[in-house]
Amino acid sequence: MDEIDFVSIEKKWQKTWEEKRVFEISEDSGKEKFYVLEMFPYPSGAGLHMGHALNYTIGDILARFKIMKGFNVLHPMGFDALGLPAENAAIKAGVDPEKYTNDAIENFVKQQRALGVSYDWSRMVNTANSEYYKWDQWIFLKMLEKGLAYQKEASVNWCPKCDTVLANEQVNEGKCWRHEDTDVEVRKLRQWFFRTTEYAEELLNDLERIDWPERTKTMQRNWIGRSEGTEISFEISGGEPQISQISTDKVILVDAVHCLVDEKGNVNQELKNYLDSLPNRKIVLTMAPKSKFDLFFGKVKDYEIFTTEFNPKKSSPKYYEKVLEEFNLKKENVVYFEHSEDGVDSAKSLGIDVVPYNGDVKKVKEFIDSKIKPQISANARESGNVWKVFTTRPDTIFGVTFMVVAAGHDKLDELVTNEQRLAVDEYLRKMNSVSEKDIERREKEGVFSGSYAVNPANGERVPIWIGNFVLADYGSGMVMGVPAHDKRDFEFAKKYGISVRQVVTNKDPLDFKNRYTGKEAFVDDGVLMASKQFSGMSSLEAKTDITNWLAGKGNAKRVVNFKLRDWGVSRQRYWGTPIPIVYCDGCGAVPVPEKDLPVVLPKEVKFGKGNPLETNSEWLNCKCPKCGGKGRRESDTMDTFVNSSWYFLRYADPKNSKKIFDFDKVKYWNPVDVYIGGAEHACMHLLYSRFYVKFLRDIGALDFDEPFLKLFHQGMLHAEDGRKMSKSLGNVVEPIETMKKYGVDATRWFLISVASPDKDFDWSEKGILGATRFIKKVFEFYDSFVGGKDSEELVSKLNLCIKNIGNYYDSFEYRKATIEIRELFGELEKGCSKDSGLKFLKLIAPICPHVAEELWEKIGEKGLISVASWPKVDEKVIKNKGQKISGEGLNEKIVERIKGILKSDTKKVYVYVMPFEIGQIDKEKILRDIRDSKLDIREVAVFAVNDSTKIDPAGRANKAKPGMASIYLE
RNA sequence: GAGGAGAUGCCGGAGUGGUCAAACGGGGCAGACUCAAAAUCUGUUGGCUUCAGCCUACGGGGGUUCGAAUCCUCCUCUCCUCACCA
Question: Which of A243, A512, A694, A961 has its CA 20 to 30 A from that of A125?
Answer without folding.
Answer: A694
